[in-house]
Amino acid sequence: MGGSDKARAKKDEMAGKAKKAAGRAVGNESMEAKGAAKESKGDARQAAEKMKDVFKA
Which residues contact 42 (CB under 8 A, 6 or more apart)? Predict the structure, then answer.
């Protein structure tokens, strides 16, 4: 665990934001929803990693 998990969480969040924005730009609600879901997944992973860091100390 550690750095690679944090990087993957950030990558998911950024990819989700990009996909959501692209879906919004072209008017594709499905793409926008999938992007929002991926962004949420990345947010949840980041929160989990932060909790791990808190309990390590």
Answer: 9, 10, 11, 12, 13, 14, 15, 16
Burial class from Cβ neighbours inside 10 Å (0-12, 13-18, 19+) for residue 53 reads exposed
Global pTM value: 0.80
Instruction: Tokens 């793409």: give the residue.
Output: 31
The secondary structure of 6-43, three-state, reads HHHHHHHHHHHHHHHHHHHHHCCHHHHHHHHHHHHHHH
pLDDT tens per residue, range 25-36: 999 999 999 999
